[in-house]
Structure prediction request, 182 residues.
Amino acid sequence: MARREHYDHLIKLLLIGDSGVGKSSLLLRFSDSVFETSYITTLGIDFKNRVIELDGKKIMLQIWDTAGQERFRTITTAYYRGAMGILLVYDVTNESSFNNIRSWISSIEQHSKDNIINKILVGNKADMDERKRVVPFSKGKALANEYGIKFFETSAKTSQNVNEAFFSIARDIKQRLPDIDS
Ligand code: GDP
Prediction:
């Protein structure tokens, strides 16, 4: 982990969504620029850091992966502690992963009554053959609009919109943080 003096803000982000939607893959794509499934399953990563620069400030993004907890639908309160932003992820080729976004949002609300958490909606696996797609872009966009959050279709495989999604939520969070001017 980088020493404190190497960044101006620390932002804790979570990836939430059904198992298999590509959360670990998005994390690795963003942090290490790789797409390697075998690596993911064997390591069961907890979190990864990446420092980005926004408006001349260095932002340490600490991004947490559920590491399989979601399979049992028992994401612990500890996982949510200190979270400032959540990327809600579904798979555009998996309808139930999309339908479950609503229940993920309710469980986030239960776990985070006292703190503000920015959210964005992410439809992953956008690279897949159009014949495999079951959730059209318009449905994702409509759901995001209903919750008043931003929406991106991404691909951890090709990198499509991966940086854009993480930078977008980081920017939203940074705007509500007290600025550190020194
Ligand atoms: P998690 O359980 O949500 O962390 O999902 P994983 O990251 O383990 O991914 C589940 C499976 O989907 C793996 O076989 C990945 O290779 C695959 N996958 C993840 N993201 C993408 C993507 O953007 N495109 C495609 N085609 N496959 C993906």
About this structure: The pocket of guanosine-5'-diphosphate is lined by residues 19-25, 37, 40, 124-125, 127-128, 155-157 (CB under 6 Å).
